[in-house]
Amino acid sequence: MCESVSVLHELTPRAADAIVARGERLMAQIFAAFVHAKYIDATELIFTERRLGSVWPDFRKCERAAAKVLGSFTGTVVIPGFIATGPDGEVATLGRGGSDFSAAILARSIGAESLTLFKEVDGLMTADPKRVPNARVLDEVHYREAAELAFYGAKVLHPRTMIPLVDRGIPLFVRNSFQPQSTGTRIAGDVKPGAYPVKALAAVHDQALVAVEGKGMIGVPGVAGRAFTALAEASLSVSMISQASSESSICFVVPETEAGHAVGALQKAFESERRLKLIDRVHAEKRIALVAVVGLGMRGRHGIAARTFSALSGQSVNVVAIAQGSSELNITIAIAEKDATRALIALHNEFQLDKIRPLADTSGRESKLTLLGFGQIGRALAQQLVAQEKPLRSKAGVDLKVIAIADRSGIKVDEGGFSAGALQRFAEHKASGGRLFDRSSPLTLQQVQATMRKELWILPSHRPILVDLTSEETAPLLQEALEHGFHIVLANKKPLAVPQIEYDRLFQTAAERGLAIRYEATAGAGLPVLDTIAKLQEAGDRVEKIVGCFSGTLGFLMTALEDGRRFSEAVHDARKRGYTEPDPRDDLSGTDVARKALILARALGRRIELSDIALEPLFGPDVDDPDPVTFVRNLAKLDDAFARRAAAARAQHRALRFIAVIDRDEIRVGTEAVPEESPMAGLRGTDNQVAIYSKRYKTNPLVVTGPGAGADVTAAGVLNDILAITIQERRR
Q1: Distance of CA 329 to CAs 193, 293, 299, Å?
Q2: Per-residue pLDDT tens for 434-492?
Q3: Cα separations (Å) of 612 from 530, 599, 608, 620, 690?
Q4: CA 369, 370, 371, 372 torsion: positive or negative?
């Protein structure tokens, strides 16, 4: 068949249907053989006829075929979806949602008691959970409510799926393939409005509002009809219509990609009126979203529209256009795309949709993780996840599943979660110098982001967690992840050291979506520095000054100098142990400590940039080199100078320490000689120490001390953040 297409250089709709049907048929036959079931081809059971230019089921013929083919058969039957016999007797495909449609047609044909569709989600929800954090699964909805939600962007169902079921009263269940204990959503004709007038919200994004405006339209019959005809002849589907009561304007909402086509069709249709100035203009406003407020209980209930507008006004959301049918089943509002998330959250809260039914507790117990970066910290985290899997599940009721691992060699995805054995194999392979993928050249960060966009953002996970374990400038990637409903956990300091305006945008996006950004490991590896500061602030205390040794790497180097070791030798040893950043210049330049100081300062509410920090690096331009091996070798030039500096400090009964000071007036980072009796002088190896001075701890600071470097302690800090988010989700 494909050779015929190649020879003819033509792919007709009939040929395309025949070729596409091969996949459905082959998979169904394989599955039928595997489960020892009877295979029946869909073309024997589903027949279509032409109606309004497209194929539509011939229900009477389908029912006769079902009675003939299935008869009194009582076993299990496997039938390929999506395909049918066309009006001309050839194979035809049923289009988007065709497999669900096939199931609904067959359910009608055999008079089924019910139909269950297994999906990747728990059922229909009160709103998109990636935009509305407290969205909930709906126990049951009416056919009409489900059809409205499906039309306005709820991708679980296609609107026509319900059509074969409605007049026969066959209930439809939507359940999760991967959560068999979830009861899902029941869709039927006997569902009552219930106590809540609004049942759910839906949204259609990337739309455009096309308007025809002009005083010459007032009182002129047929204007709307001509506009509809022009759009229909251009094969354009309209998702909303709104007309001013003065009849001076009429607007249509179409997909943004079709806006130019729609404007062109309308300009041509009203060419004479435009020439006579009866119509002032035909134009399109892009970046529009449609939000639909849906519920059977809205009919006859006073104040729904008022509450809708009040909630939107409270969030400064401007309504561009509005439409409501006489059935009062929904109110559809056109707003700017940038306001869509705020509008959905505001309406969800206004109509208390989170009270309808608590989400199945599977999302609280299970957290799906994506690891971005699989270096030393990533591998240590994977090993800790494997080691803690059973204790976390049995004692805390928490199930952490790694569903994706991404680095510069590519991305691996397993929607069900990688097994412990798989994680261990990945870690061992990477530790031995291998790559997750065999690539001739590594991906750029932009290519990694594009790959994640293609393979990860589309997964139907409920509020998953992205764990950034890289040392890259990942702020744009994290911004996109937040917009797709991911919580963020960071060991990477760079996204938090971006310009203040970008930092604000990250946290504003998280706040709008009710998502968490946790980054304890960025400031103190495994030490609870940020957590301690947060608890002081929650208790009404005010942190006024922080002084600390924030780098386990530089602490290791300073201790080595005290012990008489050469500076370059100590740096080489620290790099070998995994204490340094991948580029050791980040440590020795003091930039890594400066980033930590910036993160802490911003956590205290300071609005400051990295360039505002007074920084004293440990090396100058004479030894700088982008190659880590060459750079470490060049450091031998500084050995004598550091030996003299350490000896001078020792003679004064002092010890060299690399310190950051954060107070109201300044932030400074550099090497200082501290008295031997001070707590910081007593630090050894990679231990960090942070002294927090506050209104209550003014003269005797609160001191946090412990290991500050190493993959294991950093991974432990990351794991604590992951658990904190998981527990927070459970409490929702």
Answers
A1: 11, 8, 6
A2: 777 666 678 888 888 888 887 777 665 667 899 999 989 999 999 999 988 899 999 99
A3: 21, 13, 7, 20, 21
A4: negative
User: Over the range 164-198, which residues count as b (16 or more CB within 10 Å of their CB) and which as e?
Assistant: bbbeeebbbbbbbebbeebbbbbbbeebebeebbb
CA atoms within 13 A on the CB side of 177: 9
Higher pLDDT among residues 552 and 498, named by residue: 498
**What are the phi and psi torsion angles at 543 (to 5°)?**
-75, 125
Give the containing element (helix H, strand E) for 410: strand 410-413
CA distance 468 to 383: 16
Nearest C-alpha neighbor of 709 from the set 557, 515, 533, 518: 557
User: Quick check: is 199 catalytic?
Assistant: no
CB neighbour burial string for 704-725, b if at least 16 within 10 angstroms, e if fewer: bbbbbbbbbbbbbbbbbbbbbb
Residue recorded with tokens 């969800």: 348
H helix intervals, 304-457: 304-314, 340-350, 362-365, 376-391, 420-431, 445-455
Per DSSP, 120 falls in state S
For residue 513, count other CB atoms closer than 10 A to its CB. 24
Distance CA 544, CA 542 (A): 6
Q: What percent of the chain has pLDDT over 70?
A: 95
In the numeric block, which tokens belong to residue 305?
């529209």
Please list the residues that pair with 261 across neighbouring strands.
Answer: none
Question: Exposed, middle or buried, 290 (CB in 10 Å: 0-12/13-18/19+)?
Answer: buried
Query: Residue 70's Cα: distance from chain center in Å?
Result: 45
Where are the strands (E) in 593-666, listed by range?
Answer: 614-615, 654-663
Instruction: State the Rg of the chain over Cα.
Output: 32
CB 439 within 8 A of CB 409: yes
| C-beta of residue 84 within 8 angstroms of C-beta of residue 102 | yes
Which helix (H) or strand (E) segment is 144 a member of?
Answer: helix 143-151
Split at pLDDT 50, 70, 90, the class of 359 is very low
CA angle 351/352/356 to nearest 5° reads 115
* Residue-wise pLDDT tens digits, 44-77: 999 999 886 678 999 999 999 999 999 878 889 9
Burial of 579 from C-beta contacts in 10 A (0-12 / 13-18 / 19+): buried
Q: Is 469:463 a contact under the CB 8 Å cutoff? A: no
Residue 327: its pLDDT value, please? 66
Which is catalytic among the residues 286, 395, 596, 637?
A: 596
Give CB contacts under 8 A, 24+ apart, made by 662-667. Answer: 662/545, 662/546, 662/547, 662/597, 662/600, 662/601, 662/604, 663/544, 663/545, 663/546, 664/544, 664/545, 666/614, 667/594, 667/597, 667/598, 667/601, 667/608, 667/612, 667/613, 667/614
| pLDDT tens track for 211-243 | 999 887 777 777 888 888 999 899 888 888 887
Q: List Cα–Cα distances, 415 to 369, 456, 659, in angstroms.
A: 10, 9, 45
Residue 523 dihedral angles phi and psi, to the nearest 5°: -100, -30
CB neighbour list of residue 119: distance below 8 Å, 6 or more residues apart: 156, 174, 175, 176, 177, 460
Amino acid in the structure at residue 210 = V
The H-or-E segment that residue 211 falls in is strand 200-213
Rounded (10°) angle between helices 552-562 and 639-651: 70
What pLDDT score does 715 carry? 92
**Coil, strand, or helix at residue 259?**
helix
Pairing of strands 38-39, 77-78: parallel
Task: Report yes or no: 103 and 110 within 8 Å, Cβ to Cβ.
Answer: no
Nearest to 502 by CA among 607, 596, 597: 607
